[in-house]
TrEMBL record:
<feature type="domain" description="Peptidase M1 membrane alanine aminopeptidase">
    <location>
        <begin position="387"/>
        <end position="589"/>
    </location>
</feature>
<feature type="signal peptide">
    <location>
        <begin position="1"/>
        <end position="18"/>
    </location>
</feature>
<dbReference type="InterPro" id="IPR014782">
    <property type="entry name" value="Peptidase_M1_dom"/>
</dbReference>
<feature type="region of interest" description="Disordered">
    <location>
        <begin position="784"/>
        <end position="813"/>
    </location>
</feature>
<keyword id="KW-0031">Aminopeptidase</keyword>
<dbReference type="InterPro" id="IPR050344">
    <property type="entry name" value="Peptidase_M1_aminopeptidases"/>
</dbReference>
<dbReference type="Pfam" id="PF01433">
    <property type="entry name" value="Peptidase_M1"/>
</dbReference>
<dbReference type="GO" id="GO:0004177">
    <property type="term" value="F:aminopeptidase activity"/>
</dbReference>
<keyword id="KW-0378">Hydrolase</keyword>
<keyword id="KW-0645">Protease</keyword>
<dbReference type="InterPro" id="IPR027268">
    <property type="entry name" value="Peptidase_M4/M1_CTD_sf"/>
</dbReference>
<keyword id="KW-0732">Signal</keyword>
<protein>
    <submittedName>
        <fullName>Aminopeptidase</fullName>
    </submittedName>
</protein>
């Protein structure tokens, strides 16, 4: 295709102008519309740049707790003295507490609204009927039903009193409790009160919880042993914020927690052969550790690899014998938003100091607690993974802000709390007594520890609302854990967090916007973990670039360290710090279910017409000669059909010697007039240069089939085999989000041979086949198979089965 040159600039502009007017009257989609009407207005608490406002405030809750574990009854009894400070400008007539253990009550909203065949509590447990297939109920779900029937779970609130002993009126609403104050709590005032409670500890493997106990019946000790994981184990203050007031949404199991920071002083009375891991630092090591163990702990601070504090031999000895009494472990923690702990006689314990010079805590004790079932897998990788996580995450946010970071093995697959995480993978016991593990268990352990330790940064420090906006901690953390994972070992099969991993979800009918409340999402994993992570990878590697993205994320992390950000604060900070308008990105990725599918539909190659008839007309004659021969003429020629004009030469005339491309005086006159019409001094030099250069002009036509606008990444291959990479910013879709054309210009000798869109699969483009031009052949495989036998009873040989003579798998009797 050739390019005809128009001199009047208006003729070039007017079609585009007309198209723009037509779009605004028709089906124009403004994918770049600003989010001003969606995001809350900036105010004195949260400013327009995404930073905390000059009047930002948040509440505070300090706890002193004493707890006693009854191992035999598997029951915890505790008492807490809570000091609540009202830093808000509001007068509070009551306060709200979270009673998360009440989710296990038979009459809880979570229990009554769990649907058959739904996503389950911590995983699928039933399968509804499908065609001829009957409904299925897993043994795990039957086990859960039996545990719920045999036990009374939930909090037993025994008393709530003021320091003078007077009772406080309270109302329990499912997993929430309102405590009415005798006098409204004014701004800058505090109230102190005491709660006494107890609860039966759930068996985690039976009930599927975020905490509970695990029983090991085959341990050498008579009756076996247990691992206890305590989380959501005490009544906790509901958050009160400037943007929502009391965050007293019912706990349904998926949406996690919104909490206040405070200081903790906690004592735990446990069997005296137990080892306790906990949020905070051990305040009484002399009472619970031997002199040798205390020396090992001191040595570990400067060790270059983990040092055993409780050795495998000491743990094995504890497993064999029973307790002779109790020990009191005391842990203290400052400025944390939650508190969790674990207790078991099965634990071995190792530790290693992680150095971060100049930080508030220049030595952080990375520690792991695990039973023999963890084996070499835990010895090699747990504490090492903790250290690696802190090194990576601190680059993107801030120095690790606490004195310890712990990984504890137990029945919970993966959960996070300040300074302590619960992680599940283990080894397999073989018949010869050895323990081995699969590659997937190794990947799972390293990955889950990175992920859960990462949560100590987000949301345990950057304190987002997990219940309402799960992606703010899970999505950011999944992005960073994938960064840390690939820095650990790029050859390990990490999954779920890269753009290419999310294509099946983003093209499915089950996708919902990321901004959907977590309890309303069917597939929480891809929605709150994977898709946001994919979005951040694209922002970092494609849209913004690593330097500006990393700077912006670090700015967000430091602005909101120990504070409570909202999505608007994150969006605004990332834009303000990176210097990039990203409203189009937030709108598409977080507020819609569009996916990426950019198709390269056609490429037209064009060259400049010289307008000189002595050049252009012979060229056009040659182009026509290159057309395929007419089929009828070819067949006539092959059959030697006579041609009339060849056999009768007397019928020739002017047109037998001259064709439509013959140059005439009129053609030359028109060319001269064309040159003379260039009356501006810049026109003729511009035209002459274009003719001389005779560049190759390529017009690429793209269509947006998925709806999500994205940069267009092109891999260009030329006829000489050389390649180039270029990226067209997403803003190309501003005026038409459905289809656009882009012209690329290359010198005369540079001929484009092939173009591929998104060659490295970095934008989650759902259909890679329409990314190739020319289209490539699609390769696949076929597999031969044998149709399965019908399983209905009417089609079975019941006669043969009854006689014991039915055919075997080979069909022989």
């Amino acid at each position: 295709m050739r390019i005809l040159v128009f001199i009047a600039a208006f003729l070039l502009a007017s079609p585009a102008l007309a198209q723009g007017i037509q779009q605004t009257k028709g089906d124009f989609q403004d994918k770049f519309r600003q989010l001003d009407e969606v995001l809350p207005d900036p105010n004195v608490y949260r400013n327009a740049s995404g930073a905390p406002g000059h009047q930002y405030w948040q509440q505070r809750a300090d706890y002193r707790i004493t707890a006693e574990l009854d191992e035999k009854k598997r029951r915890l009894t505790a008492q807490a003295t809570i000091n609540y400070t009202n830093n808000s400008p509001d007068v509070l007539p009551w306060i709200w507490m979270q009673l998360d253990q009440n989710i296990f009550r038979k009459d809880s909203v979570a229990e009554l609204t769990n649907t058959f065949g739904g996503p389950g509590r911590r995983g699928p447990v039933v399968k509804p009927a499908d065609g001829d297939e009957p409904a299925k109920l897993s043994l795990g779900e039957l086990r859960r039903q039996q545990a719920m029937a045999d036990n009374d779970y939930g909090y037993d609130i025994r008393s709530i009193t003021l320091p003078d002993g007077s009772k406080l009126s309270h109302t329990i609403v499912g997993t929430m409790m309102r405590i009415d104050l005798p006098m409204p709590l004014k701004p800058n005032e505090s109230v102190e009160f005491q709660i006494d409670w107890a609860f039966n500890i759930v068996e985690e493997n039976a009930v599927r919880a975020r905490s509970g106990y695990e029983h090991f019946p085959n341990d050498p000790r008579s009756g076996g042993n247990d691992i206890f994981l305590f989380a959501q184990w005490f009544p906790r203050l509901v958050a009160y914020s400037d943007y929502e007031g009391w965050h007293n949404k019912e706990f349904l199991g998926r949406g996690e927690y919104t909490l206040e920071f405070g200081d903790y002083d906690v004592t735990m009375a446990v069997p005296n052969d137990h080892i306790v891991s906990s949020t905070g630092i051990l305040a009484n090591p002399i009472d619970v550790l031997t002199a040798t163990q205390r020396q090992r702990l001191e040595t570990a601070k400067n060790a270059d690899k983990p040092v055993f504090i409780v050795t495998p031999q000491e743990a094995a000895a504890n497993e064999r014998t029973g307790p002779s009494g109790t020990k009191i472990w005391r842990y203290t923690a400052k400025n944390v938003r939650d508190f969790a702990w674990a207790s078991s006689r099965k634990f071995m314990w190792d530790a290693q100091g992680h150095k971060q010079p100049g930080a508030e805590h220049d030595t952080v004790m990375a520690m792991s607690f695990w039973p023999k079932e963890g084996g070499e897998l835990w010895r090699k990788y747990s504490t090492a993974s903790v250290v690696h996580t802190m090194k990576v995450y601190s680059r993107f946010s801030f120095d690790y802000p606490y004195p310890t970071a712990q990984s504890v093995n137990g029945p919970v697959g993966g959960m996070e709390y300040p300074m302590i995480t619960f992680n599940g993978p283990r080894t397999t016991l073989n018949k010869d007594g050895s323990r081995t593990y699969s590659l997937s268990e190794k990947v799972f352990l390293v990955g889950v520890i990175i992920h859960e330790i990462g949560h100590i940064y987000f949301p345990m420090v950057v304190n987002s609302d997990e219940r309402q906006w799960t992606w703010m901690d899970e999505g950011i953390n999944s992005f960073l854990d994938s960064v840390a994972g690939y820095e650990w070992d790029p050859d390990m099969p990490w999954t779920r967090s890269l753009p290419r991993d999310l294509i099946p979800y983003m093209t499915s009918s089950q996708q919902v916007p990321i901004m959907t409340h977590s309890d309303s999402v069917l597939n929480l994993g891809p929605n709150a973990y994977g898709k946001p992570s994919a979005a951040f990878h694209i922002l970092r590697d494609t849209v913004i670039g690593r330097e500006r993205f990393d700077f912006a994320l670090k700015e967000y992390s430091q602005r909101w360290k120990h504070k409570r950000p909202t999505p608007a604060d994150f969006f605004r900070t990332m834009e303000e710090a990176s210097g990039t308008d990203l409203d189009w990105f937030w709108r598409g990725w977080f507020y819609t279910t569009d996916h990426v599918d950019i198709s390269l539909d056609t490429i037209h190659k064009l060259r400049i017409d010289t307008e000189n008839p002595n050049i252009d007309l012979p060229r056009r004659r040659g182009e026509l000669a290159d057309d395929p021969e007419k089929v009828g003429n070819r067949l006539n020629r092959e059959e030697r059909v006579p041609i009339w004009v060849l056999e009768n030469p007397g019928v020739t005339d002017f047109y037998d010697e001259n064709d439509e491309f013959t140059v005439t005086p009129k053609d030359r006159k028109s060319y001269k007039e064309f040159l003379e019409s260039m009356d501006e001094p810049w026109m003729r030099p511009t035209f002459d240069r274009a003719v001389k250069e005779d560049a190759n002009y390529y017009v690429l036509s793209f269509s947006n089939k998925g709806g999500l606008v994205m940069p267009i990444i092109l891999d260009l291959t030329f006829a000489d085999g050389k390649t180039e990479r270029m990226m067209i910013p997403a803003e190309i879709w501003r005026r038409n989000a459905r289809e656009v054309k882009k012209m690329l210009v290359f010198p005369k000798g540079k001929t484009l041979a092939k173009v591929v869109v998104d060659p490295d699969w970095e934008t989650a483009d759902a259909d890679v086949e329409n990314n190739h031009y020319p289209r490539r052949m699609i390769e696949s495989r076929i597999e031969a198979f044998k149709s399965p036998d019908r399983k209905e009873r009417v089609q079975r040989d019941l006669m043969g089965e009854a006689r014991g003579t039915e055919k075997n798998k080979t069909g022989r009797k």
